[in-house]
Write a structure and sequence with these properties.
- With 182 residues, the chain is of the alpha/beta class.
- Helix content is 29%, strand content 25%.
- It has a 6-stranded mixed beta sheet with strand order 2-3-1-4-5-6, sandwiched between helices.
- Strand 2 and strand 3 form a beta hairpin.
- The structure holds guanosine-5'-triphosphate (GTP).
- Guanosine-5'-triphosphate binds next to helix 1.
- It is a lipid-anchor.
- Keywords: GTP-binding, Hydrolase, Lipoprotein, Magnesium, Membrane, Metal-binding, Methylation, Nucleotide-binding, Prenylation.
- It catalyses: GTP + H2O = GDP + phosphate + H(+).
Length: 182
Amino acid sequence: MPPKERNIAMMGYRSVGKSSLSIQFVEGQFVDSYDPTIENTFTKVTRVNSQDYSVKLVDTAGQDEYSIFPVQYSMDFHGYVLVYSITSQKSFEVIKIIYEKLLEVICKKYVPVVLVGNKTDLHQERTVSTAEGRKLAESWRAAFLETSAKQNESVADIFHHLLMLIENENGNPQEKSSCIVS
Ligand SMILES: Nc1nc2c(ncn2[C@@H]2O[C@H](COP(=O)(O)OP(=O)(O)OP(=O)(O)O)[C@@H](O)[C@H]2O)c(=O)[nH]1
């Protein structure tokens, strides 16, 4: 069977580890330096349940509560990885706002999402509990994972979970929406 093509966007507040998770998944390494992203695209073929997927992973620039949702990420994407850091309450608040804006822009009540609490290796600095993260994901009907890009903890699981959620949606990418009110 040929690989199925899947477009996935990584979104979240600045410095939560979107690039580090992408690089860990695609290249299997952790680079301990901080270089703010404008936009990067990665591709990787991965196999889940005997099916190959060609994943196009778009690592977006960090967003904050004031950012307008970048409209280019609202169409032709099959699913989203929404990342916060377990050491940053601010990043947890921002991810809620990003999710609300995403739903608004795509005009749908449901979109395949994995909510990710990254940086679990920094457990002494934790300010967002696992229960809080799980509760938020449940309210979105999203999958939830806590990860460490640094220690390669549960990183591949993010993408495998998301590919499964997309499969349940029959792999329909988000279509261009006509209900944006400007
Ligand atoms: N300890 C620890 N540090 C991490 C982890 N993931 C990322 N970092 C660090 O956090 C900083 C930001 O990581 P990035 O991957 O650049 O974060 P980003 O979300 O892509 O940042 P923007 O491009 O600004 O949006 C870097 O110094 C990383 O090394 C992790 O799991 N554990």
